[in-house]
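Sequence in, structure out. Go.
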Amino acid sequence: MASKTATVKSTKKRGDKGDPFLPVAFVIWLKNTAWRLLGLGLIALALGVAAALFSYSPADPSHNHITDAPVTNWLGWPGAETSEFLLSALGLAAYALAITLAFWGFKIIRVKWLPYFLGNLAALLVALPVLATALAAPAPDPGFPIQSGYGGAIGYLGYQQVQRLLGGVAASVPTWAWTYIGFAVALPIWAMSFA
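Output:
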């Protein structure tokens, strides 16, 4: 009699990983916690940027101002450098960056992701220079601490470019109107960064 060998077929399919290492509920909790921590991190970053901007002092040591004077910025040397860079580049439009980061943080905590992040980021990267250009139209108060004006260097260059492109038409429009026109263009773009 010939012996028959029984073949046992495996029920596992190729590439099947079998039982999960961690319970599904625990994995979901980990993912949700990670999103919440990311959101809290963005809010903390936004608060840090805002604190650095609010406590800006032109007398603080930074890459533009070398001195042995003590740092007065609330966040110390990193805050002084951050505020000097942001205010020199974007002027008062730098506050929009802090507001946007805080909004993204709250949205991530609530929704657990930013569904249109690349679109949000693109809108922010367009809105900040346009806001800075709108803020650069009026001449700054003599006591304003940033030499490049309310719109920073980017706003100043943007405003000069708009003036150059429009030529004689630009001279007939008052500066306050340029500010309103700039805000009318920039604010809807900035709002898209919150979508």
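Check: Helices lie at 24-54, 76-90, 94-111, 117-136, 152-166, 168-172, 175-192. The CA atoms of residues 127 and 189 lie 5 Å apart.
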